[in-house]
Amino acid sequence: MWPAVALSLELATVTTCVLLLLGVPLAWALARANSWWGEAVSALVALPIVLPPTVIGFYLLILLGPHGPLAPILAHFGLRTLAFSFPGLVIGSVVYSLPFMVQPVRNAFRELGPAPWEAALTLRARPLDAFFAVALPLAQGGIITGTILAFAHTLGEFGVVLMIGGDIPGRTEVLSIVIFNDVDTMQWGQAGVLAAGMALFSFAVVLVTFLAEKRMARLRA
């Protein structure tokens, strides 16, 4: 059980860090986009919310497999496949948890409106400086919410990680898969303890998210 807990926490941490690096700039671009392509990209980012995890996992398995379209690129790095490996789990988790990072951050950027950004540019701030000094601090509530949701969503994911990572103890067997295996082998006691722990953790995450949003709304008022 404990190796699975450690692997799940590592996966959620790495995935959340990657999502912060990719999701925040993407959310900023989508919040400022006023053309049809912005809505098209937004819809593409939101697809994991409505698509079954097994569908996403299936296509990622093909993409990262030894005969997939990325196989020639992987071969240059001495890799045959990224499937059934920790990097493959990270890629799958990033794709599946992307909307949980992008949506709240994009909404936070949109709530700011153009005024703070335009004021910073009027004061001759460079766009990159204005982004880090003005936009990010004012949108920190959405960034905190997205970070919490992305971490929690990755920690509890089952379908995508099972499809792309399989069930390899110590390598790809995360906590949700351990619960499934415990139920499958009639180990109800251990499954109940793990399921209760994840339920309490999920409740705590939702509660912290609501409290953080309430606090940030109070500070903005």
What is the terminal-to-terminal distance?
Answer: 46 Å
Number of continuous helical runs: 11
Q: What's the CATH H-level homologous superfamily?
A: MetI-like
Tell me the CATH topology.
MetI-like fold
Percent of residues in helices: over 70%
What's the CATH architecture? Orthogonal Bundle
Morphology? globular
Which blocks of ≥5 consecutive residues have pLDDT under 50? none
Biggest sheet descriptor: none
Order of helices and strands, N to C?
A: HHHHHHHHHHH
Overall mean pLDDT stands at 86
The number of domains is 1
- Class per helix and strand makeup: mainly alpha
What does this structure look like?
The chain is mostly helical and 221 residues long. The protein has one domain: MetI-like fold, CATH 1.10.3720.10. Helices cover 80% and strands 0% of the residues. The protein contains 11 helices and no strands. Helix 6 (115-122) runs antiparallel to helix 7 (127-138). The longest helix has 33 residues, at 188-220. It is globular and about 65 Å long.
